[in-house]
Design brief:
Strand order of the largest sheet: 1-6-5-4-3-2
CATH topology: Alpha-D-Glucose-1,6-Bisphosphate, Chain A, domain 4
Shape: globular
Number of domains: 1
Radius of gyration: 14 Å
Distance between the termini: 37 Å
């Protein structure tokens, strides 16, 4: 079953400031990940393409990245999640930045049930999360 979940927010800061914050994702100084709502994102080998990591029971590898602009992860676990999630930022104006988090995957029946009954609700709640600039 197809899942497409996209959250877009406008950050009241120019893109160069927001780009600096995106570089902290998955590090000890992470200022992007909603740690109060989700387990911390951890990548023991660093944030390089091919690195394995994740958060809680969700595991993925870094599929692609453009430092300070975008990062895309390929799901490895849970079983039944086949696709990606990632962040993309772009200037919305001289003083604002648009940040988009996208999950795009095909799921098995069990994977879809996990998404539908648990993860989707937690993920939807993150829309209200604010990134501190």
């Amino acid at each position: 079953m197809k899942v497409l979940n996209r959250h877009t927010r406008i950050i009241k800061a120019p893109i160069h400031k927001t780009s600096e914050i995106l570089l902290t994702l998955g590090t000890v100084e992470d200022r992007v990940w909603p740690i109060g709502k989700w387990p911390r994102m951890i990548f023991h080998q660093g944030m390089d393409i091919g690195a394995l990591g994740g958060h809680g029971p969700i595991r993925y590898t870094i599929k692609s990245k453009t430092p300070g602009k975008s990062i895309e992860f390929q799901f490895v676990k849970p079983k039944g999640f086949h696709g990606t999630h990632g962040f993309n930022i772009e200037g919305a104006s001289e003083s604002t930045t648009q940040i988009t988090h996208t999950i795009e995957m095909n799921t098995s029946f069990i994977g879809y049930m996990q998404w539908l009954l648990a993860i989707r609700w937690l993920h939807g709640d993150i829309q209200e999360y604010e990134i501190a600039i």
